Amino acid sequence: MRKHPLDPFSLIAGGLFTVIAVLYLVAALNDMSVNGRIVIPVTFIVLGVGGLAGAVAAVARRGRGDAPDHGTLD
């Protein structure tokens, strides 16, 4: 089987949604409630960080050799 490159955004998003699901499950089992005023903004922040990590990883994977040299005049 071929190895595929790591996708940081998918890994972070999957981990985040797993943590949120476990949080709600534990809260339901202990007759507690989860404050959505905290969970929703934290979710967006973590997804944003994951998107940035995915973009940086894609640029690093592609390499800097593709960029044209803008310092010279032809």
H/E topology pattern: HH
Largest sheet: none
What share of residues are in beta strands? under 5%
Gyration radius (Cα, Å) is 20 Å
Low-confidence stretches: none
Annotation field: number of helices: 2
Give a count of the beta strands, DSSP E runs of length 2 or more. Answer: 0
Structure summarized in a few sentences:
The protein is mainly α and 74 residues long.
Structure in words:
The protein has 2 helices and no strands. The chain is elongated. The longest helix has 27 residues, at 36-62. It has 74 residues and is mainly α. The protein has helices spanning 8-29, 36-62.
Strand-helix topology:
Layout: H1 8-29, H2 36-62
Helix pairs in contact: 1-2
Tag the structure with descriptive keywords:
74 residues, mainly alpha, 0% strand
